[in-house]
Structures are given as C-alpha cells and as structure tokens.
Amino acid sequence: MSLLLLLLSLFSGVSAEVPLTRTHVTSLPGFNGALPSRLETGFVRQKFFAIMLYLTMTRYVTVDEENGAELFYYFFESEGDPGSDPVLLWLTGGDRCSVLSALFFEIGQQPNSKQAPLSPKSVASILFVDSPVGAGFSFSRDPKGYDVGDVSASLQLVKFLSNWFGGHPEYLTNPFYVGGDSYAGKIVPFIAQKISEDIEAGVRPTLNLKGYVVGNPTTGERIDYESKVPYLHGVGIISDQLYETIMEHCKGEDHNNPKNVICKQALTRFNDLLNEVSKPHILSKKCIYMSLIPKFESMGRKILKEELGILKHRPPRPSIQCVASRTYLNYMGSVDEWIRCHDNDLPYTKDIKSSIQYHHNVTLNGYRALVYR
C-alpha cells in the first residue's frame, strides 16, 4: 500500500506529507564535544514529492499567515529536571536585536565554566525568540509583514507560544514565565496580561503562567529618561556640577528634545559621557560588534570608526567578548552577513505608551513579578 501511494504521488504530482518533527542540534562549529544542554532550533517537515525524499528545515513558527511572517527560536532544555523545571520565554531589547545577544552576553552559560552552578539553564528550560519580525533570523516573505509595533509584535508572540506549546505538550504543566530586558521589558507585562486573559477565557492550549521577569525595563514613562541623570551621578560617571546644572535647568523639559538652551547643552555633554560606557553594564568594556572576516573588513572599519568616533580615549582594539558573536556567526556562512541589530531600517510603531497598567493588572491577579536593574 505504501509503495502504491508513492507511485500514485509520483505520477499525479500530489505530495504526501508527514507531520512536523523537532530539530535537535547535537553539535556546533568550533565547539568540541557534547553540548552542555539539549538545543532545539525548530521543526523539520518531511515531504515525499515525486521520487525525491527531502527535508525542509523550517526552524520557524508562523505568526502571520497572510504575509508569511516567521519567528526563529532557540530552545535550551533545562540541565536539571526538564519534566518539572520552569520554562522561560526570553526576549531581548534594542531595535530588532537578535536574541543571541541575550544568549551570548546576558543569561547564557558563563564563559570558561561549562558546569556553572548558577547558569539559568541549570534550573529552567529557556525559549529564546527573535522578535519582532526582522530581528535575528526571523523574517517575512511579504515586506508588509515587517510593519509591526508593540501591540502586534506582542500578539504575534502570544500566537507563537500557542503554536509552540501545541507542538510541545509535555511542557504545558511546567511553570511558565515571560522574561525580557530593556525595551522588551515594556511588552513583557502586556504579553503576561494577554496570556492570563486567555487562561481565564479557556483558550487552548492552556499555559501554566506563574509570572514574569524584566531587567532594566523600559516603561514608556518619562522616568525612563529622567532617572538616567541621578543614576549616572550616583555611580560617578557625571560630575556634581553637571548633575546640578541638569537638575536646575531641565525641570519640566523633554529630555529628548529640550527647549532650554542651557539644558540642551548640559544634556549633550551628559549623552557624550553616557556613550563612553557600556550601557547594559557600566563596569564592562563598551562593545564593538564588528566583523573580523576579510570580506567584511572594510565594513568592519566603518563600524569601528562610527562606534568609536565618540570616544575620547579609544581602546587599542575591541575586546574578544564583543567581536566573538559577529565573527563566529559570519564564519558559519548562514547569511550574507549577520548583524546584531537592525537599527531603525524597518518600520515599527511604539503603540504601548506605558506598561505600568499591565504591571498593575498582572500582579493584582496574583502572578509573581521580578523587576531588577
């Protein structure tokens, strides 16, 4: 019967399709030995077409059928007890920045410590997603699919989770948390609220939502910008004199577009000093995400010049931690050139003006929240 079906497929041109199966990554270029934890990057769809058997590596979850928008993800299974450990969705901030930033520099395995006891992957399974569409390896077949915003991108992530858990029902009973940092911290509570509403409405699959976590989160409120001044003064990056000038002359001013001349000059000086440090971690070196591959050498010089041009004391060379991600991914040859962030070259609408109401709503409903800096 199987042979007959195959022959019918061959002569009729009709394809017979088998269900999606998961894509497990067992090795990585340049990494010797077994991976510390099980890594999944998506699904494999097997198709029989004519007499050819081939694999189509989808590795994506569709979130917009009309425009063909697909989100790419990495799933690291917990190194502890995957059957009961929490599952954490993690989003990174920035303008369409690849979630590999989080994996390499934020909550991934600690360098030179394969068995690091405090690694997040030792206590939870982590789902890293390139979001919104256009970040990292996520893409849209129709350019219209890139035109998203806070609300639409958040709803796409809710749809992503529904599809992903539908294909991974064994994790539905695990405690589930939504997490993110920087600008992603603005939409995390919105996503948590939407999931909680779906739970109340009986939408399937039902996620076992327990709470959310946000680091250095944007809220959309003025305090996001105005709190930078006392913070940088408190850690010694700006002088007492500059701090006092800003506090005196910038009262009531929009820090992004001040009209007071003295305030504008003081904030210009403030931003110059701010740009000399690493914003994610002021004690770390300022990262230069440049390529060391010969074919990108001229572009690398251009990036280096642009990013270091503001510095008074230029480092002799970019630190190896900063260039590692870009260099490694470009050597893999998966795309013409991997870049960390697509800065403002794709449309995006910031239509969640403030996330405070979502923090309020979700926590009042009894869900746990962790906000850290």
Automatic annotation (TrEMBL):
The keyword Signal applies. GO terms for molecular function: acyltransferase activity, transferring groups other than amino-acyl groups; serine-type carboxypeptidase activity. InterPro entries: AB_hydrolase_fold, Peptidase_S10. Keywords: Signal. It comes from the Eukaryota. Residues 1-16 form the signal peptide. The keyword Transferase does not apply. One of its GO terms (biological process) is proteolysis. Coiled coil: none annotated. Belongs to the peptidase S10 family. This is Serine carboxypeptidase-like 18. The lineage of its organism: Eukaryota, Viridiplantae, Streptophyta, Embryophyta, Tracheophyta.
